[in-house]
Amino acid sequence: MRLDVISASDRLTGGNAVATTLGLIGAGRIGSTLAKLAVAADLEVVLSNSRGPDTLADLVSELGPKAKAATVDEAAAADLIAIAVPLGSYGQLPAAALAGKTVIDANNYYPDRDGRIPDLDSGAVTSSELVQRQLPGALVVKAFNNIDSMRLGKLARPAGAPDRSALPIAGDDPEAKARVAALLDVLGYDAVDVGTLADSWRSQPDTPVYVRPYFPHAFEAAAEGNYERFLNFPGVAVPADQVKELLGAATR
Ligand SMILES: NC(=O)c1ccc[n+]([C@@H]2O[C@H](COP(=O)([O-])OP(=O)(O)OC[C@H]3O[C@@H](n4cnc5c(N)ncnc54)[C@H](OP(=O)(O)O)[C@@H]3O)[C@@H](O)[C@H]2O)c1
Fold first, then answer.
1. CB within 8 Å of 247: residues ≥ 6 apart
2. Secondary structure of the chain: what % helix, strand, coil (to 5)?
3. In 21-75, alpha helices (H)
4. Under 8 Å between Cβ of 23 and 78
């Protein structure tokens, strides 16, 4: 096979003919942005939410024939699954359906939204360790949590582009991390390995790599309720070396 005709699916499956499908549990801001990037990369997507497939008809029609809506268990049957739900609902994630799967955890802990979770408040575990605890048979990899959904959509660039950004990934299984890095690559990002899920505190909210490098005025815009700024700011490219530096500068 010539290198220049390897499709996104081939790159994710090591060159075999199996079509690669991204399952999404959660189809809000982050889930729908990931779905758009995946469709643009010629992947199939299966979207799910808490209210059922019928409520996703508009989004699926906007995404086109590569997308379909399904139940959470059907989305969990995809080759790779990304979870993008409010963390407070982690206890409802389908452990049996996700056993053996590589599962991307894009979630963050916001107590005002998610309710108090003592093990996170005490720092006993990271939020991704909590998700891994809920999904004991899955290979959880944290990714896509440290960039706001609009910049995630706007900053994607092809491999080798001079203004390509990088995102941190963390996980306990090296092969699962490699699969997620391959997904980032086809979606438009380089990956920087943070380490294990225990190390993933380095990309949680309030760390140097969290949101601001890609959108310096994100929190001011949110506080002002300045939706125009959210919508229009193109984002700042953050290359891999800078992501490494920012991860190294995190303290707790
Ligand atoms: N927004 C961002 O810029 C951003 C950036 C990075 C990370 N994150 C993190 O990503 C996660 C999702 O954020 P978001 O902003 O995308 O949220 P959102 O726009 O509110 O969307 C949440 C999605 O999760 C679904 N959902 C909720 N509970 C569910 C359950 N038990 N099973 C299946 N689906 C369920 C919702 O479906 P229904 O509508 O049917 O309930 C909805 O589709 C959060 O943990 C957030 O902290 C967000």
1. 168, 192, 194, 202, 203, 207, 208, 209
2. 45, 15, 40
3. 29-40, 57-63, 72-75
4. yes
Report CA(217)–ligand 1 centroid distance (Å). Answer: 22
Q: How far is the CA of 50 from the centre of ligand 1 (A)?
A: 10
Q: Tell me the two tokens of residue 220.
A: 């001011």
* Beta-carbon-side half-sphere exposure of residue 177 (alpha carbons within 13 Å): 18
| Structure tokens given for 205 | 């909210």
Distance, CA of 243 to CA of 209 (rounded, Å): 7
Contact between 231 and 218 (Cβ < 8 Å): no
Tens of each residue's pLDDT in the chain, 252 residues: 223 333 455 455 544 333 489 999 999 999 999 999 999 999 999 999 999 999 999 999 999 999 999 999 999 999 999 999 999 999 999 999 999 999 999 999 999 999 999 999 999 999 999 999 999 999 999 999 999 999 999 999 999 999 999 999 999 999 999 999 999 999 999 999 999 999 999 999 999 999 999 999 999 999 999 899 899 999 999 999 999 999 999 999
Q: Exposed, middle or buried by CB within 10 Å (0-12, 13-18, 19+), for 30? A: buried
Residues within 6 Å of ligand 1 by CB? 25-31, 49-51, 55, 72, 84-87, 89, 92, 106-108, 110, 145, 148-149
50-68 burial: b if 16+ Cβ within 10 Å, else e: eeebeebeebbeebeebbb
